[in-house]
Amino acid sequence: MIGYKEHQNEQRNMLVHDADGTVWIKTDDIGKVDRDGFLYIVGRIKRFLLICPNGMAYKILPKPIEDAIADDKAVAEVCVVSAHNEKGTGSEPKAFVVLNEGEDTVEAEERLRQLCTDKLRTICVRLRMSFSKQCLRTLSEKWI
Q: Which distant-in-sequence residues (6+ apart) come within 8 Å of 130 by Cβ?
């Protein structure tokens, strides 16, 4: 990779030179290495959500929320984003959920709320959910 065309500031921040002159690309991926030395990408630093319940700001990763919701048998896909709260006084996590065919939305939402309350910190109690039959994606498979 040569760099970002017309974005030299971003390029300076992402190219890292170590002591022996090797150039590394800082991708902002979060990874883990297993016992056998295999590296797994498990998230992105840039996907932090800024959540502001009651005026206090918190940075949270959406991945643990997505993983908790995805563990339910009724869920086909899930994506969590930051959304303004209904009072307009801050933001909170919002989950966009696609259920498997034939699943009941009311039952699933009740179960998913309990699941999030049991598995996650109290900040996720304020989690909003939106259900749809399918998700919209870009050509690179990112949620719209």
A: 94, 95, 96, 97
Backbone angles phi, psi at 68, to 5 degrees: -60, -45
Rounded Cα distance between 124 and 65, Å, is 8
Asked if residue 44 lies in contact with residue 30, where contact means CB atoms within 8 angstroms, the answer is yes
70 vs 77: CA distance, rounded Å: 7
DSSP one-letter string for 39-55? EEEEEEGGG-EEE-GGG
User: Phi first, then psi: what are they for 142, rounded to 5°?
Assistant: -85, 145
Tell me the whole-structure pTM to 2 decimals.
0.67
Q: Could you give the CA distance from residue 122 to residue 118 in angstroms, rounded to a whole number?
A: 9
pLDDT in tens, 81-127: 888 877 776 778 899 999 999 999 999 999 998 888 888 866 566 78
